Amino acid sequence: MPERRPTHAKRAHAKQMNAKRAYTRSKPKQAPKAPAARTPSSSHGQTLITRRHFLYGALGVGAAAALAGGGFALYSAAQPNDAEEEITVLQVPEDAVSALGTDQEAIGSDELGNYVSLVGNFELPYGTLLWTNNDSIAACLLPTSESARPLTQVALLYLGSGEYPIVLEEAIGQAEGFDIYDVRASEQGLIWTEANILDGIWRVYTASLNNGALGSPALVDEGNTGWETPTIAAVGMNAFWQVLPALGGENTGEDSLLKRVRFGSGSEAETVFSSTGRMSTPPYPLADGLVITPRTNTSTVNYQLTLLDADTCEVRDKVVLPTAMKPLEAGYGDNGFTFSFDAIYNYGGGIANLGTYTPAQTHGTEDYDGLSWYSFKRAPTAAPAWSNGWFIVKSKQSVCGIDIGSLTYFALPIQSGCDDYGDYLATTGATSTFVTYTNINDTAVDGTTKKLCLVRVWSPVALS
Fold first, then answer.
1. What percent of the chain has a predicted confidence (pLDDT) above 70?
2. How far apart are CA 50 and CA 34, in angstroms?
3. Which residues are listed as membrane-spanning (predicted)?
4. For residue 429, what are the β-bridge partners?
C-alpha cells in the first residue's frame, strides 16, 4: 500500500475538533488563544478562521436534502449496478518531469518589473478572504468586530477600481442562528453557504447580479451532519455546489453529487454529475468551465480529473490518475489539467512526490501520454492559476510566476508584517491578471500600527 503523510482522516479529525470548539465567544475564558488573522489552510483550499473560533470549509455539518424535486443525473462516474469500466491511467516516467530548483533560473528583484506589473493595490478590512476566476470582480468574505453579529458579510471587490460594496450584510438565516460560511461570485451571480454549527445544519443560496445589485436570494439546497457543507463555485450564469457524504457518517455509502442552478432561475436545482464515493477535490472554476475529481467505476480506487463545460455540463477533457493517488487540488490551464499532492507515494514514477504538476506543453484533448511535465515541488497550499502564459503557484510565503518554456520564474515580494503564510493566491483558471492578498498586523518603531488586508492585482507580460 502507498504511504501517505499526512492522511485525510487526520485532517478530518482535526476539523471536527475545531468544529467542537466553534462558537465559544459567549465563553471567552474557555476559548483557545487564537492568531489575530484568518489564515488560509492547506486543506482543499478551505480556510480555518481561528480568530473567531469559526470554521470555514469542510466542517462535516454537511448536506442532505436537495430542495428541487426534478433534478437529474446528466453524468455518472460510477454507479453500483453499472458494469465496471475499463480505464487507462496516466503514466509519467521520472525523466519526463522538470522541477523548480533543479532546472530553473530565478528572475532577480531588480528585473521583476520587466516581467510583471502591479496594476492594483487595495486595502480591505483585516481578516478578509477573497476568491476570483475572472479579471473583473472578486468575492470577499469580510469580518465584523470580535463581539458582533453577524460574524461575516459579503462584498464584491471591483479589481479595476478597488471599490468593495457590501452586497450581503448578514446571513438570510441570521435570526435562526446561521452565519455566512463561504461565498463565490461571477459577473452574473453570487453563491454562498450559511451554517448553523450548533444545530449542524447548512444551506446553499444563490442570487443574480445586475450591475452590482444583488437579486432576490433563492434557497437551493439544505442539509445536516450526514453530509459535508458543500464546496461551491460560480461560472458565468451558473452556480455549482458539490455535496459529499461525511466521513464516518450515516451517509458514508451514498454518491457524491455535483449540483447546479442558473442565476436568477429560482431554486430548481439539477444534479449534473454523480460519483460513487467521495470526490477528491473541491470544484475548480474557470471562465467557462469547471474541474471536478470523481472516482472511476472500477474495483480499484482511481480519481478522474474531469473538465466540464459550465453551460452544457458535457465532459470536455479527462484523465485518470494512478490507483489510490488522491489529489488535494485539481485545476485546468493553458497546458491542460493541473493537480497537486500533499502526500508522498512509493510508486507512480514522475508524479509520485509531493507538489503541483502540469504538462509542460500543449496537447490534444485526452491526449496526456508521452508528454513532458513540470512539477512545482513545494507543499501545496492553494490551487494554481494561469495568467498570460505564466503558471502561477503559491509557495511557502510567496506567489510565483513560472515560464515553463524557458524554465525561469519570478517570486512576488512579501509585505512587512504579513501573516506567516505570506501572500495567498486568490485566482483560479486562466486570466490576464491575477490577484494575491495578505493580512498585515504590523507595529512600527514609532508605535503606529498597520492592520489591514492588502490585495494586489498583477499583470504579467504575455509570453509568446
1. 81
2. 6
3. 54-75
4. 385
| Whether the predicted pLDDT of 362 surpasses 70 | yes
CA distance 33 to 47: 18
195-227 pLDDT, tens digit each: 999 999 999 999 999 988 999 999 999 999 999
CATH entry, 8-460, from 2.40.30.160, 1.20.1250.20, 2.60.120.260, 2.130.10.120: 2.130.10.120
How is the chain split among helix, strand and coil, in percent rounded to 5?
A: 5, 40, 50
**397-447 pLDDT tens trace:** 899 999 999 989 999 999 888 888 899 999 999 999 999 999 999 887 787
**SS3 state of residue 402:** strand
pLDDT at 82: 54
Contacts 24+ apart (CB under 8 A), 439-442: 439/37, 439/38, 439/39, 439/126, 439/127, 439/128, 440/126, 440/415, 440/416, 441/36, 441/37, 441/126, 441/417, 442/416, 442/417, 442/418
Q: Where are the domains of the chain?
A: 8-460
Residue 155 identity (one-letter amino acid): A
Name residue 393's amino acid.
V
Whole-number pLDDT of residue 121: 98
